[in-house]
Amino acid sequence: MSIAPPAPPSLEVLRQEIDSIDAEVHSLLMQRGDIIDRLISVKQTQEVGSAFRPAREADMMRRLVQRHRGILPIDTVESIWRVIIATFTYVQAPFSVHADIASNEPAMRDSARFHFGFTVPYVAHFSAAAAVDAVAKSKGDLALVSATSSRTPWWIDLETKGAPKIIARLPFIERADHPAALPVFVVSRVADSAMVTEVEMWSVRVSGWNAEIARALSPLAEIVAVPDTAFDGAALLISITGTTSLANIKAALIEAGASVRSTALVGSHATRYTVRASGAPRS
User: Fold this and answer.
1) What would you report as the CA-atom Rg of the chain, rounded to the nearest whole angstrom?
2) How many CA atoms lie within 13 A of 43 on its CB side?
3) Domain of residue 245, CATH code
4) Number of other CB atoms surrounding residue 200 within 10 Å
5) Which residues contact 82 (CB under 8 A, 6 or more apart)?
């Protein structure tokens, strides 16, 4: 005699399970808030510095991707966690996001909302230099500026000691159909111990810059270049990973015919985490 399979649960039972999970998620978020409240008191007595922790955030996002499974899109999970992190950081130490909207205002706003939500104030600026200057004059704000192009060498303002630095590059989790795919640098003041240095960002000023030199340098590193007509050269923002070094970059510039006028470290960030469209990590 065959045994009939058990009847599937009713819609009402499944909805009750969802309601129970929703209540548990809300409860856990409130528990997180209680811990943050205690953390604020500890920070006031121990003076550990800025609430931003780029290295910790990068580690959290990597672990999130590695443990993720199921039908929920990784983009949704990433945005939820980003907003949680940003909101609780804001609760610890209120800050604003200053965005350069000169080239692509809708995409920049999408990036800001995806990564920081709606609680953190959003302030638009019509140049990267203005956004960075606003951060320099603030106690703990951050700026979002284009990571792939620029009209002016805004990063020169990051060269001096005590100036804000590049602390992250977004989106951290990269995929071909990312809903906030605009490549942006995050600029802020962060304690040295909180930085992640997998990719160093260098400001390099050269004389004798031309298209041939740019092509010779492109296999070695990602570069943003702004012409400097006063010296027949350029101001460069160069991303240097562990596969190369500043010495290699300088040697390649000189070999190609350029003269290196100055170099300065203007920040660092985590190596981006690339996933396939399905959400699986790419090896």
Assistant:
1) 22
2) 15
3) 3.30.70.100
4) 19
5) 114, 115, 116, 117
**Sequence-ordered list of residues with C-beta below 8 angstroms from that of 106, at least 6 positions apart, any chain:** none
Q: Over the stretch 80-124, which tens digit does the pLDDT of each residue have?
A: 999 999 998 898 888 999 999 998 899 999 999 999 999 999 999
Q: What is the mean pLDDT of the chain?
A: 87
Q: Which of 184, 180, 159 is nearest to 170 (CA)?
A: 184
CA 81 to chain centre: 14
Query: Is 123 inside any structural domain?
Result: yes
d(CA 255, CA 7): 75
pTM tops 0.70, yes or no: yes
187 and 70 within one domain: yes
Q: Which pLDDT score, from 0 to 100, does residue 149 have?
A: 83
Q: Residue 282: what pLDDT?
A: 47
Shortest CA distance to 199 belongs to which of 265, 129, 282, 252?
265
Strand 273-274 with 222-228, pairing: unpaired
Q: Domain check: are 71 and 188 in the same one? A: yes
The ranges of the chain with pLDDT < 70 are 1-2, 4, 43-50, 230-231, 276-283
Do 29 and 70 belong to one domain?
Answer: no
Domain shared by 184 and 92, yes or no: yes
281 found inside a domain? no
Query: Which residue segment(s) compose the domain that 95 sits in?
Result: 48-196+269-274
> How many Å apart are CA 173 and CA 275, to the nearest integer?
7
Between CA 26 and CA 33 the distance in angstroms is 11
